Structures are given as structure tokens and as C-alpha cells.
């Protein structure tokens, strides 16, 4: 501030002296508003930098308004072993006892009550907690050892079983939530309470994008499945800028909603509209420095580019008959799990960093044998085909593939137990997942559950550990990867201890 005659100058802002034109109260009000504007502009600039809105170091930008294609981590904390992630999420909680966790003791003790010494007073859901007894239920399906590693896999997964030497099967996963919504939210965002950024949003925020014509984070959902609901917040950006949220691709003529031009609007008209809109946003951005303006025009530009890139990537006509046959007959039907697995490979080829596939229908409170036959029949062959397809194209080594759900199932039957039928309730204390490719050691079975398949007895892997491991393959140290939220350094892995599982990593 400096005095020039009867005028007071606050940098470039001018206020007439109070004894000439304004009362003292009016002058103080204007001065306060001016200083508040300076403070607001500074805070907005800080937010812009915190969320990666600065231009790339080489001066380039995605939209001309400062949206860089690089993420905030440049370079990464350590050398990554994975360039991209394909996450096959089995929504509903697939039974580990029918897939990867072989427990012959349950068959020997079929129908006997779950011993109190095994349960140890652990909570149950209201769906089975009021049963007179909790009868132990062995799997009706046979298990066999596969590969050089000798991993046990159910007969329901004959195609996946061929790739156990490429996988790290984690049989000691454990979570905190016993109901679907908080459990899925926890796996997808690192917090049971909604509103946090999803894994894909975190990764895009940190690493940016490798293809400016496609989203860096794409979501694919198997069509026609009725089970636990999937909310868009599961792939949302939370407190990160909205541009980091996942983009859902749908089956049908319009894979991305509202992408096509309205009737009577051609590409030239749309381009002219975007150019004039960018000019207006540029003028406003120079005044307000609002990062949302930059994000908004960047999204408009992305949508314009996607008008040509999305039809190309979703067009399967260029795929060979051999490739299509590998994925199974349902691959020819858009929106099936098989079609989405093939689309995931095509997206990965084009630089999409995080591809999330959701397949619902795994919530088998009753009819486990029939339900598991259906679900595994829909997913087993396409999953194996995806792994082989990545191998054939030289992408397996730097693509992390993940398979798993939000929790496991109980070792006792929910409802009536018969020789041919039974149900299984939610079970957060132990479940199975697997990882493959992207720097993960193959042929590894990690962790162990008790002979009853009820609790983890060796090498527990918490959801936070899973997240830390995923980030590690991408070159990210989960403890150093943060974003400001309500004055705190927020992380995907939260504030409780977490660690990457070095034993399943090829390079630790």
C-alpha cells in the first residue's frame, strides 16, 4: 500500500481517500473486498497447482488453458512395472470356497455346526445370524492342482486355471465391511463412506493420460445383470476435480452418452462453437483464474475428439476370427463380459490407464451351485482369453490385471443345507483375489486361511495393503501420494498402516 495525494493504492487497486468521496465504513468495506479478492485468487491458484492444473514442464497443454496431460507425479516415486491396470471386479462377493480356497475339512464335517472356537464371537449379518445352527457346507465342486506351482483351483474355472503360473493368488484378503455398499465403496475408494476419489481417479490424477483422444479412466459394466446396485460414485472423482472421474462406456449405438451431435449440427458447426466457447472461457479465466473453467473446456474438447476415437475403439470388425473365438461366443454381443474384456484390451492398447470392468451377480445367499456355475461360465473363458491376448501382443508384462470382489462368503450354509444345494452369507474376514502381469510374480499363492476357511491365519492382506500394492506397480509410493482435502493430506490408503506386498512383486 502507498499514498499518492488523496488516493490510497493497494498494488494495482485504487480506492479514493475516505475524506474526499467515501465514508470510513464504505472505504473499509471496499478495501476488505479488494483484499479478499486477492486472497481468493491466490487460494484458487494454489488449488489449481495442487490438482495438476499447471502446464506441463515443456510448456504444452491439453486445451490451451493449462490442463496438462501429465499427472502430478512427474516423475513417479520409483520405476513402475505396470503402465496400465485392468480391474475385473466381481460385484456381489464371489465365494472363495468355490473358486480358489480349497477346504476339504468342510466336506468331512458337512452339516456339523460351526464351532464356537472357530467363530470366536464374530459378528454375522441379520440374514443368517438368527439361524438355530450354522451348518458347515463343503463345496460341491471338485478342486485340482494346476501349473508348475500346483495352485488349487475349482473345476468351475478350467480356463483361468491354465494361467496360475502367471498369477499371484491372494487367499488372505480381509476387509472391514460386512454389507455390500460400504464393502464395494471401500474396495473402490479406500473408504467405506462415499465421496472419496475412486482408484481410477487417483491414478489419473497422479499419472495423467497417454492418449488425449480417449479418457484415461474407463468403466465397463456387464449389461443385463441384476444384483447389488452399482453407483456412479464408485468411479467418481470425489474431492478431486471432476475431470478425473471414470467415463462409462455402454453397449449399443451410443457408447458414451451425449457424445454425438444433435440433429442439424455437423462437425464444422461444433468445432466453431467450441472455438468461440474457448475464447469466452479464456477471457473469464484470465479474470477469475478459476480452474473449473479449464477443466470444463478440456472436457468439451475431449468429447469432440472422442466423436471419432470412441467409434473406432468399440468397432470389433478388425478383430480376427481366432481372437473372437478365444473369448467365446458371447463376445459378439456388445455389453457381455466377454465383449467388455476384448474392449478392455483394445482400450489398453490405445493408452487408457485404468479400465474397470464390473460383473454383477455373485451375491449367492442361496443356490450357490447353480449361481456359481452361471457366473463362472460367463467370466472364466473371457478372463483367460484376456490374459492370453495381452501376452500375444506383448502387453502382459506391463499390464496389471486384477480379479476379485468386495468380500468372501461364509463357510456355513445360509438357509437349508442339502446334498445338492446351499447358500452362503457375506464374510469379510477372508476372501480370495488374484493379480497377474504388470510386475507381479507368477505362480505364487500368498496367505492362508484356517482349515475351516473362516479366518486368516497367515499373511493377512487388508484392503489398504491391496491398494498400496496396486499403486506400487505403477511407480507410486502410497504414503507420498496425497491430495489436499479439508486441510489434510488425503491418501487412497488412508491414515492407518498399509504396505505393498513385496512377496508377490517380481521387483520389490
Structure write-up:
This protein is an alpha/beta fold and 508 residues long. The chain contains eleven helices and 20 strands. Helix 9 (337-349) runs parallel beside helix 10. Residues 1-20 and 35-68 have low confidence and may be disordered.
Task: Record the SSE blueprint.
Layout: E1 2-4, E2 7-10, E3 13-16, H1 24-50, E4 84-90, H2 104-108, H3 116-119, E5 143-146, E6 151-154, E7 167-174, H4 180-189, H5 199-207, E8 217-221, E9 247-249, H6 267-288, H7 291-314, H8 321-327, H9 337-349, E10 354-359, H10 368-392, E11 399-404, E12 408-409, E13 426-427, E14 431-436, E15 444-446, E16 448-449, E17 456-458, E18 461-462, H11 463-473, E19 483-485, E20 488-490
Helix pairs in contact: 6-7, 9-10
Amino acid at each position: 500500500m502507498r499514498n499518492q495525494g488523496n488516493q490510497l493504492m493497494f498494488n494495482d487497486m485504487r480506492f479514493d481517500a475516505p475524506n474526499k468521496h467515501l465514508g470510513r465504513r464504505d472505504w473499509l468495506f471496499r478495501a476488505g473486498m479488494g483484499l479478499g479478492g486477492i486472497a481468493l485468487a491466490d487460494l484458487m491458484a494454489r488449488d489449481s497447482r495442487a490438482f495438476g492444473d499447471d502446464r506441463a514442464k515443456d510448456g504444452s497443454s491439453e486445451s490451451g488453458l493449462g490442463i496438462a496431460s501429465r499427472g502430478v507425479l512427474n516423475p513417479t516415486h520409483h520405476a513402475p512395472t505396470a503402465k496400465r491396470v485392468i480391474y475385473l471386479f466381481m460385484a456381489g462377493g464371489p465365494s472363495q470356497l468355490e473358486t480358489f480356497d480349497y477346504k476339504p475339512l468342510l466336506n468331512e464335517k458337512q452339516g456339523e455346526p460351526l464351532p464356537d472356537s472357530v467363530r470366536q464371537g464374530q459378528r454375522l449379518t441379520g440374514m443368517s445370524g438368527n439361524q438355530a445352527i450354522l451348518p458347515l457346507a463343503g463345496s460341491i465342486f471338485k478342486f485340482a492342482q494346476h501349473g508348475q506351482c500346483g495352485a488349487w483351483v475349482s473345476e468351475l474355472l478350467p480356463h483361468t486355471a491354465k494361467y496360475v503360473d502367471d498369477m499371484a493368488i491372494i487367499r488372505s484378503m480381509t476387509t472391514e465391511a460386512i454389507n455390500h455398499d460400504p464393502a464395494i465403496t471401500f474396495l473402490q475408494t479406500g473408504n467405506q463412506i462415499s465421496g472419496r476419489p475412486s482408484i481410477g481417479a487417483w491414478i489419473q490424477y497422479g499419472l495423467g493420460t497417454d492418449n488425449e483422444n480417449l479418457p484415461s479412466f474407463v468403466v465397463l459394466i456387464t449389461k443385463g445383470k441384476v444384483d447389488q446396485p452399482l453407483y456412479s460414485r464408485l468411479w467418481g472423482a470425489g474431492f478431486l476435480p471432476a475431470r478425473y472421474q471414470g467415463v462409462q462406456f455402454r453397449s449399443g449405438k451410443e457408447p458414451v452418452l451425449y457424445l454425438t451431435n444433435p440433429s442439424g449440427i455437423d462437425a464444422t458447426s461444433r468445432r466453431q462453437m467450441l472455438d468461440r466457447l474457448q475464447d469466452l472461457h479464456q477471457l473469464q479465466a484470465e479474470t477469475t483464474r478459476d480452474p473449473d473453467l479449464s477443466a470444463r473446456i478440456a472436457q468439451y474438447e475431449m468429447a469432440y475428439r472422442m466423436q471419432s476415437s470412441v467409434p473406432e475403439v468399440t468397432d470389433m470388425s478388425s478383430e480376427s476370427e481366432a481372437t473372437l473365438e478365444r473369448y467365446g461366443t458371447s463376445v459378439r454381443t456388445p455389453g457381455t463380459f466377454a465383449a467388455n474384456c476384448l474392449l478392455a484390451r483394445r482400450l489398453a492398447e490405445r493408452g487408457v490407464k485404468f479400465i474397470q470392468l464390473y460383473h454383477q451377480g455373485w451375491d449367492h445367499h442361496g443356490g450357490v451351485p447353480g449361481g456359481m456355475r452361471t457366473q463362472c461360465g460367463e467370466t472364466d473363458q473371457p478372463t483367460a482369453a484376456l490374459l492370453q491376448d495381452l501376452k500375444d501382443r506383448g502387453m502382459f508384462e506391463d499390464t496389471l490385471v486384477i480379479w476379485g470382489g468386495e468380500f468372501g462368503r461364509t463357510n456355513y450354509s445360509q438357509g437349508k443345507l442339502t446334498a445338492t444345494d446351499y447358500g452362503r452369507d457375506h464374510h469379510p474376514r477372508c476372501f480370495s483375489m488374484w493379480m497377474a502381469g504388470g510386475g507381479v510374480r507368477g505362480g505364487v499363492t500368498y496367505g492362508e486361511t484356517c482349515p475351516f476357511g473362516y479366518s486368516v491365519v497367515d499373511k493377512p492382506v487388508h484392503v489398504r495393503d491391496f491398494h498400496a500394492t496396486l499403486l506400487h506397480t505403477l511407480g507410486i509410493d502410497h504414503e507420498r501420494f496425497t491430495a489436499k482435502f479439508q486441510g489434510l493430506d488425503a491418501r487412497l490408503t488412508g491414515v492407518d498402516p498399509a504396505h505393498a506386498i513385496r512377496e508377490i512383486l517380481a521387483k520389490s
